[in-house]
Amino acid sequence: MKIRIYAIAGTVALGGLLFGYNTGVISGALLFLQIAFHLSALMSGIVTSIALAGAAFGAMLAGPAADRYGRRIALLGTAFLFIAGAVSSSLADTLWLLLSSRFVVGIGIGAASMLVPLYLSEVAPTHLRGRLVSFNQLAMTMGILLSNLVGYGFAATGGWRWMFALGGVPAVMLAGGMLYLPETPRWLASRGQLSQAKAGLQKLFGPGTDIATQMTTLQEDPGGLAKASSAKKSGAAAMRRPLIIGVTLAVFQQATGINTVIYFAPVIFQSAGISSASSAILATAAIGAINVGMTFVAIWLVDRAGRRPLLLTGLFGMAISLCLLAAGFAFGRSLNLGWITLASLSAYVGCFAIGLGPVFWLLIAEMFPLGGRARGMATATTANWAANLVVALTFLTLINDLGRPAVFLLYAGLAIGALIFSAILVPETKGLSLENIKTLWTKSA
Ligand code: BGC
Whose CA is nearest to atom 3 of ligand 1? Predict the structure, then answer.
């Protein structure tokens, strides 16, 4: 059963790989796009961030689509969006075609970012849920690293078309996988299709497995989707607290600055004195590798230690390393600023990768009751992409206006805010079935 469920999670996590690859690929391609399309600074910013805007839109669409057509069909549609976007962006010969293709890819990114954890949380057995849902974050960090390496590989020839086209490969694999994989038993049960849910469970866990317990658990939340609209109207307690936690953590995940590092690491390194482009790219790849490595650690720990310890320790570490980074930029000129920057950025990314990175996506996949899960996740995910866009658009201006130390101190302050918020409001969900998590909100509301 274990191998089967891991194989399924690995296939669906291709959506996470696509999310990471397609957000990361632009940094390697941009230099060549600037030449090919004569981009001004403003236009470069738009080319970079249009996918983020598309992602906010895609996350919004994916919630209703996942409720209406099912998680599987929504993921299949997302894979086709990625394929279409990869083909058209790699063939783009006008700026408008490039922008619209990247917008389509962005819709795919936003949809995948919520559908993958949604699907994984609904097929995972309780004791493996943290780990399996976090495959999404792992695949995403690998996708980012892969995009850095592909960007590096094609840099000498300026092959930006290839950089975009290669994103089509995992998309074809995801589409193939989704044709074969079953719908989630929870979605089927919520539509009253109990015999299909049973067949789905059998397919997930393999023939001969005893699925009676899982069937009983599924039936503890009967008619979940039917209750969705009334839950929405009355703003039921079971939705309210998860929404507050989900949206706030979404904003904190971005406002503490992770993507200033992921998107602008070479620029930060160059300003810290690591001046040659190739060492800056190498340092960036090192950060990417730490991101992947520490996500493995999170996956190993999340169902053992639980979500809260990882989240709180990670946030604490992020705040400390951001303060060190700020201090480095403020006082480090006489010391070796390049090394201080590399060390504190590595610590910062490592702490994100063990806590707020995976735990945010996991919590939003498990906190909502079935009836409002897809919509709740879509709301939190849209907030995440909107915050991502705001941070990406303001980072360079803030650095200019306030200076580096103040900007990183600002992110440190927000990490402390996130720490206090999480310590007070985020519950432990380890070991609870999705159906039982619901009782956390009604009990203490
Ligand atoms: C965030 C992304 C970020 C990535 C970095 C994710 O959890 O949502 O915005 O780029 O982590 O690993």
Answer: 259
Q: Which tokens go with 202?
A: 């059998």
What's the pLDDT score for residue 445? 46
* Closest C-alpha residue for ligand 1 atom 11: 357
Beta-strand runs (E) in 295-364: none
Contact 415, 312 (CB under 8 A): no
pLDDT at 273: 77
User: Which atom of ligand 1 is nearest the CA belonging to 141?
Assistant: 12
What's the rounded mean pLDDT across residues 26-41? 88
Q: How far apart are CA 393 and CA 404, in angstroms?
A: 16
- Residue 366 sits at the vertex; the CA angle it makes with 379 and 70, to the nearest 5 degrees, is 70
The DSSP line for 145-197 is HHHHHHHHHHHTTT-HHHHHHTTHHHHHHHHHHHHHSPPPHHHHHHTT-HHHH
How far is residue 352's CA from residue 287's CA, in Å, rounded to a whole number?
A: 12
In this prediction, residue 183 has a pLDDT band, given cuts at 50, 70 and 90, of very high
Asked whether the CA dihedral 221, 430, 78, 53 is positive or negative, the reply is: positive
Q: Which residues of 166-185 are buried (b: 16+ CB within 10 A; e: fewer)?
A: bbbebbeebbebbeebbbbb
- Which of 128, 220, 164 shows the shortest CA–CA distance to 26? 164
Triad 265, 10, 389: Cα angle to 5°? 35
The ligand 1 atom nearest the CA atom of 384: 8
Phi first, then psi: give them for residue 429, nearest 5 degrees: -115, 0
Global pTM reads 0.90
End-to-end CA distance of the chain: 38
Widest distance between CA atoms in the chain: 70
